[in-house]
Amino acid sequence: MATRSDADGPLKDLLARSNLPQTEARLMVLRILHDNPDHHMSAERMCAALVRRDATAAISTFKTAIYDLNNAGVLSRVLVPLNANRAQTLYEIADKPRHRHLYCTVCKTIFEVCDAVMEQRIAHQFDLAGLKPSNFDLARAGKCLACNEARLTSR
User: Fold this and answer.
1) Can you give the pTM of this predicted structure?
2) Which DSSP letter does residue 10 get?
3) Helices 24-35 and 59-71, packing angle to 10 deg
4) What is the distance between the alpha carbons of residues 6 and 4, in angstroms, rounded to a whole number?
5) Does the keyword field hold Secreted (predicted)?
């Protein structure tokens, strides 16, 4: 049976590659995100998960760990539009190739779009502008097929 320490190996490797010291709060952030089925969570949901796990780190320490991990590139931020005037920041572990996000405003599902050609074009535009991409994505909002079909059949 694998111990928590064994399961934390890849998470500890992420911290080592980013030259961040390994703290319990940083590992807890990574564990919570890793164990979440959709792998995207707000800071508030992560803090609630921390409280449920009865961790000893203070909420402020935990939030600082989230921001440190994001600044170091271990986490990526995804801004999700909730309505015309509000958005929510979600975080994910930045351990996959660069990708984009689509968001269903009805069922609140996030879809990851992995398209190498699109990413090459975007990288080219960044190069032309002399910019370095950050670990941030703005999710494109819409209504997924399942929610759209449900609406059509409920008429």
Assistant:
1) 0.85
2) H
3) 80
4) 5
5) no
Domain membership of residue 77 as a residue range = 4-153
The CA distances from residue 48 to 45, 57, 65, 135, in Å, are 5, 12, 15, 24
Total domains present in the chain: 1
Three-state DSSP at 100 gives: strand
E-only strand ranges, the chain:
75-81, 87-93, 100-104, 110-113, 136-138, 140-142
Cα–Cα distances (Å) from 148 to 70, 98, 144, 151, 154, in that order, read 34, 28, 6, 5, 10
Q: pLDDT, tens digit, for every residue of 42-72?
A: 999 998 888 888 667 788 888 999 999 999 9
Which pairs from 122-127 meet CB under 8 Å and 24+ separation?
none
